[in-house]
Amino acid sequence: MKSLVLLLCLAQLWGCHSAPQGQGLHYRQLNCDDPEAEEAALVAVDYINQNLPSGYKHTLNQIDKVTVWPRRPFGEVFVMEIDTLETTCHARDPTPVANCSVRQLTEHAVEGDCDFRLLKLNGQFSVFYAKCHSSPDSAEDVRKVCQDCPLLAPLNDTRVVHAADAALAAFNAQNNGSFFQLEEVSRAQLVPLPPSTYVEFTVSAPDCVAKEATEAAKCNLLAKKQYGFCKATLTEKLNGEEVAVTCTVFQPQPEAPQPQPEVADVVGPKPAADPDVHVPLPSDTAANPQASPPLRRVAPQVLPWHRAHYDLRHIFLGGVSMESTSGEAWHLRKTRAVGAAAAPAVPLCPGRIRHFKV
């Protein structure tokens, strides 16, 4: 009898150790071309463009990976990796990104690489974690498609700065009664033949006319700031320089609220690369399934002075980690999760390329 009892105890002990610790937690590997995955990716891209303080809007190019996890007590969390491409619409341009042209390879394209986490509640997506960076196409790849195409130039190059100043002066001279100030140089290329500098830059309008604007500090900026976007070419000639400039002035836009100073030290949760990653959600979301978890941006960083493009890494650095009072959270236990389907013969990801691969 004692032997039988001991055998039963050993069997129960073995069963306890062999039972999956993540039992009941089922994640699903979603097809990257699934409409639900694309809907989440488009929300993520919209989030990028809504928070761009500078540079150019981005559009979705490819969904690399998407995993969907349940979130207790409500909703699902979409963990995604996406690729984007820079468009020709500046961040200040109110044109919807769907109507913006993609920057082509011959124009020295820029690609974005982003990690996102989105919460889906009642059919609605909201971003609560984001991390991005972007980089221009390599010079070698540009040369493969266009041997003579100019490459991106550092925005602090003396020729670039001079071209922007000369173009702005020419534009102001063409617009009597108005005075625009240089906001930023956004893109520049040095063209060898004919020797010229191509530059794109943004301007803003203060609330004073040109004759009163001899000192820019005396001009108060409008409550609803008016911006413009300019493209210019300064061509070097034997008898001097020739400047051709065109600008589009946008309707006045309210100034976006600046991040609070205390946000600067917020550190976002680590990407889900570890086998056991704990990502807490805010208390108001746990109590109210209708609430969307906020993603707080870091304070603007000082951009590298020698940069040739606006890197998406300067928008936000992940999310904010907030523990709920009820202890509700979702866990990624990739090595212990049960119910995950075996990998199909045909990979579900990455998805289709919408434009071109950089």
Automatic annotation (TrEMBL):
GO molecular function: cysteine-type endopeptidase inhibitor activity
Alphabetized CDD domains for the sequence: CY
Superkingdom of this protein's organism: Eukaryota
Subcellular location, principal: secreted
Subcellular location: Secreted
Keyword Repeat part of the UniProt annotation: yes
Cellular compartments per GO CC: blood microparticle; extracellular matrix; Golgi apparatus
Keyword Hydrolase listed: no
Pfam families: Cystatin (PF00031)
InterPro entries: Cystatin_dom, Cystatin_Fetuin_A, Cystatin_sf, Kininogen_Fetuin_HRG, Prot_inh_fetuin_CS
Gene Ontology biological process terms from the UniProt entry: acute-phase response; negative regulation of bone mineralization; ossification; positive regulation of phagocytosis; regulation of inflammatory response
Range of residues in the leader sequence: 1-18
Residue intervals of the Cystatin fetuin-A-type domain: 27-133, 144-255
Region (Disordered): 252-277
Keywords from the named record: Disulfide bond, Glycoprotein, Mineral balance, Phosphoprotein, Repeat, Secreted, Signal
SUPFAM superfamilies for the chain: Cystatin/monellin
PANTHER family for the chain: ALPHA-2-HS-GLYCOPROTEIN (PTHR13814:SF6), FETUIN (PTHR13814)
The protein's assembly and partners: Alpha-2-HS glycoprotein derives from this precursor, when the connecting peptide is cleaved off. The two chains A and B are held together by a single disulfide bond.
Function recorded in the entry: Promotes endocytosis, possesses opsonic properties and influences the mineral phase of bone. Shows affinity for calcium and barium ions.
Name of this protein: Alpha-2-HS-glycoprotein
Gene it is expressed from: AHSG
